[in-house]
Each structure stands twice: as structure tokens, then as C-alpha cells.
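Subgroup meeting minutes
Present: P.N., E.W., G.H.
Scribe: E.W.

1. P.N. recapped why we're keeping a running log of single-chain structure predictions: easier to compare across weeks, and new members can see raw inputs and outputs side by side.
2. G.H. added today's entry (261 aa).
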Amino acid sequence: MKRALYSISIFGAALLCLLSCGQKENEWIQLFNGKNLDGWTPKITGYPVGENYGNTFRVEDGLLTVSYDKYYRFDSRFGHLFYKDKFSEYLLRIEYRFVGDQVEGGPGWAIRNSGVMLHSQSPESMREQQDFPISLEAQFLGGLGNGARPTGNLCTPGTNVDIAGKLFERHCINADAPTFDGEEWVTIDILVRGNKEIAHIIEGDTIIKYTNPVIGGGSVDNYREDIKIDGKALSEGYIALQSESHPVQFRKVMLKDLSKK
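Output recorded in log:
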């Protein structure tokens, strides 16, 4: 699978340059500083905003680590770690890897499964028992050693998008992407242009793109009715890293703000 970058309708040469041209370090915002979780807020299902149950989110050896060693069982404690600022147009780069074994009680679909939420509602606007924020998810999957399991997919908790000019209402769509087994580090770039077009990119290949994100659909529970306004365009929001029952580590979470370019 190889998709030429210039085939992207809106981004074209600009995307090619963003990914391959010389990058100035001062153009990147380091969302994760490699030392602590300053600037980040946890929200775990069943707990108030800011309570980091079981020290789920932590920094170990310079890596942002999602761990469950203090859990007895997972018990649907889906968690998200939110960055403090909202963004609209940006290039996000994340380096992640799956490690260890899934915690007892985690759902079967969540083995070697994590992701990053885009255009998300704020953690403060979530109810205590809400499972997922209304957002767009770039899903991270690790291979199971027995066939294809592509990463970089799109999932849509409480949202809908257009794909190839048609409304897409299923919760997840698989990307045309590689499978990464073991504890290999994976780099994903996500290019976001407000409510116009979003592209997931792995190793220079655009694996999925979609347009016109709006609030709508299901796959999210216990939300506030005044927040889930179906049909409302999503042009900005928060970025959040997931905890879904399998340990995962992040060594880079960095962003280039394109809103003024």
C-alpha cells in the first residue's frame, strides 16, 4: 500500500512539505515535556476530573506511560488524558508503542488498543460516568501476531464524518495501513484543518482522510445533552490520549500550530 501524498485534495504540496521539508525545532510545541504531566488533566470513567485513579497516567524513564499495575480489575475504567489547550488547525505527531499484557477485566477488543482523541469536548464538560468524550479518534492498534491488524483507523464516539463525499455513520473504519507487532515504536502524523479535512499519515503515507466532522451518532454514553448537539460542526477541540486497558507508552507528543499559516 502506497498512496502518493499529492493525491490529497486540499493539502497537496503543503502536506508533502510539512512532512518532508526541514523542520525548525521552535515550530513544534512539545505537548509532553518528557519529565512530568504538566499541562495534562486525566478523566477516568467513574471518577471526577483530575483524579488519576491507580496512577494510570505517569511518566517513567522519560516516557508518558499508561499503566494498570495498581488495578485489581479494569471494570470499564476508560480513561483519557487531556492537554490543556484547544486547537483547530495543526499537525500532530505521536510516537507510541504497546507493552506488557492487558489488565484483567479489559474487553477483548481493547487488547493492544489505544488512540488519540481529536476535536474533543473538554474534560470538565464530561459527566463522571461518561465513558468516552465526544470526539474523533485516531485509533492505535498493535498486531496480535496472527494476521493483519492495521493501525491509524478512525473511530467516532458521538460524531459523524464524510468520507469520499458521503456521510459515514459506522463507529469505526479501518485504514489501509501496516500492522505493527511486538513493542515496536510507531510514528503517526495527523493533519487537521478545522472542520474541512483531516488526514492520518503513517511513514509518509496517507492511510485515511475524512471531511466535515460533526457531532452526532452513538458509541458514547452518559453524556450531557447540552454538549451533544447533533449536527454541530466540529472545527476545534481538545487532544486526549486514551487508556483502554492495555499498557501503552508515548515518547513524543508534539504539535505544529497551523492556524496562522
